[in-house]
């Protein structure tokens, strides 16, 4: 009976994509569920992941444009229907995708008459246009539209200061407010239900993107970013001042007692990552470089195997062995 209750309580939540569609090139939709969760967990996770999706997922934008022979944003080129300001606003709306960091350059060199769209932008191989039909300008006469573009990858919404970084409209260089926001909207809802003697929850998550990232990729990136935010707390160590021990001495995780089955322990160990074990930074870095990611991976190493890990050292190995003994794990070579 006790074992059954423990197995229920440690059941791992599963993420499922229940719907995915592209309504247009610039509107993608995904619907996901995460369950089972304990009462209150769905709201905690939903609120946190929504904030990260909306503000911490990277996007790619045009951040500056240099228009030949133009000095003022509100100038008008004779033979072009749009003002320079309108052209800049159209460039701002272009949705791009790039896997490369740093500044990239693009170009528009078109002789009219012609309707200029995103398809006419010449880009490096690392940058891709999501919707090539996006409108830029309408050239009505036999004149040339010559624009150099600066493309960057970032997060959030950045309002450009024309007086910053020596960008000067007198040189024909115009900063463009950058919306590095591929995720357009996020909704979450919670469904509660009884499971045995406890209330459990299902988290429903809806994500809309501009096509720069599919919702599933956006959710993955947001999840990794959210985990990264908490790593300093997991790795934090308090200096031994005035007899105060380090946090790692007091935060040894409470694992299930010995009456839990071996299979159940294995599931738990597979889900527990090294950065959750509060080892010192030195030990964590050495294990990570050795491709030891989970407690399950670590339990497969003997003392001799650990001693062969570069830069780990005998004292660090003793600390690892003591930790494993405290939670009831015998390394290979010590098992009967």
UniProtKB/TrEMBL annotation:
The keyword tRNA processing belongs to this UniProt entry's keyword annotation: no
Domain of life: Eukaryota
GO molecular function, one term: DNA-directed RNA polymerase activity
Cellular component, GO annotation: chloroplast; DNA-directed RNA polymerase complex
DNA-directed RNA polymerase RpoA/D/Rpb3-type domain sequence ranges: 29-236
GO biological process, one term: DNA-templated transcription
InterPro entries, A to Z: DNA-dir_RNA_pol_insert, DNA-dir_RNA_pol_RpoA/D/Rpb3, DNA-dir_RpoA, RBP11-like, RNAP_asu_C, RNApol_insert_sf
Record localization: Plastid, Chloroplast
Keyword Nucleotidyltransferase carried by entry: yes
Catalytic activity: RNA(n) + a ribonucleoside 5'-triphosphate = RNA(n+1) + diphosphate
Region described as Alpha C-terminal domain (alpha-CTD): 251-336
Known function: DNA-dependent RNA polymerase catalyzes the transcription of DNA into RNA using the four ribonucleoside triphosphates as substrates.
Assembly and oligomerization: In plastids the minimal PEP RNA polymerase catalytic core is composed of four subunits: alpha, beta, beta', and beta''. When a (nuclear-encoded) sigma factor is associated with the core the holoenzyme is formed, which can initiate transcription.
NCBIfam families, A to Z: rpoA (TIGR02027)
Family: Belongs to the RNA polymerase alpha chain family.
Notes on the domains: The N-terminal domain is essential for RNAP assembly and basal transcription, whereas the C-terminal domain is involved in interaction with transcriptional regulators and with upstream promoter elements.
Protein name: DNA-directed RNA polymerase subunit alpha
């Amino acid at each position: 009976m006790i074992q059954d209750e423990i197995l229920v309580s440690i059941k791992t939540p599963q993420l499922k994509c229940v719907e995915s569609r592209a309504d247009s090139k610039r509107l993608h939709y995904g619907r996901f569920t995460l369950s089972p969760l304990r009462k209150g967990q769905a709201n905690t996770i939903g609120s946190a992941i929504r904030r990260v999706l909306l503000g911490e997922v990277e996007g790619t934008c045009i951040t500056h444009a240099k228009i030949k022979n133009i000095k003022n944003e509100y100038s008008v080129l004779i033979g072009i229907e749009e003002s320079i300001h309108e052209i800049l606003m159209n460039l701002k709306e272009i949705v791009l995708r790039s896997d490369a960091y740093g500044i990239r350059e693009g170009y528009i060199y078109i002789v009219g008459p012609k309707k200029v769209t995103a398809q006419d932008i010449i880009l490096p191989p690392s940058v891709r246009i999501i919707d090539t039909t996006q409108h830029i300008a309408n050239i009505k006469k036999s004149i040339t539209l010559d624009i150099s573009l600066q493309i960057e990858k970032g997060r959030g919404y950045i309002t450009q200061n024309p007086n910053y970084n020596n960008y000067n409209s007198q040189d024909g260089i115009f900063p463009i407010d950058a919306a590095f926001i591929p995720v357009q909207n996020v909704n979450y809802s919670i469904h509660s239900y009884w499971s045995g003697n406890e209330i459990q929850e299902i988290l429903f998550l809806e994500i809309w993107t501009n096509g720069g990232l599919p919702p599933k990729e956006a959710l993955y990136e947001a999840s990794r970013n959210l985990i990264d935010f908490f790593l300093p707390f997991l790795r934090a160590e308090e200096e031994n001042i005035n007899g105060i021990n380090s946090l790692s001495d007091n935060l040894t995780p409470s694992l299930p007692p010995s009456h839990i089955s071996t299979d159940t322990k294995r599931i738990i160990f597979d889900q527990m990552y090294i950065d959750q074990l509060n080892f010192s930074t030195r030990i964590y870095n050495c294990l990570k470089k050795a491709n030891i990611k989970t407690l399950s991976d670590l339990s497969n190493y003997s003392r001799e195997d650990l001693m062969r890990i570069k830069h780990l050292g005998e004292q660090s190995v003793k600390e690892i062995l003591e930790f494993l003994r405290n939670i009831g794990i015998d390394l290979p070579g010590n098992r009967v």
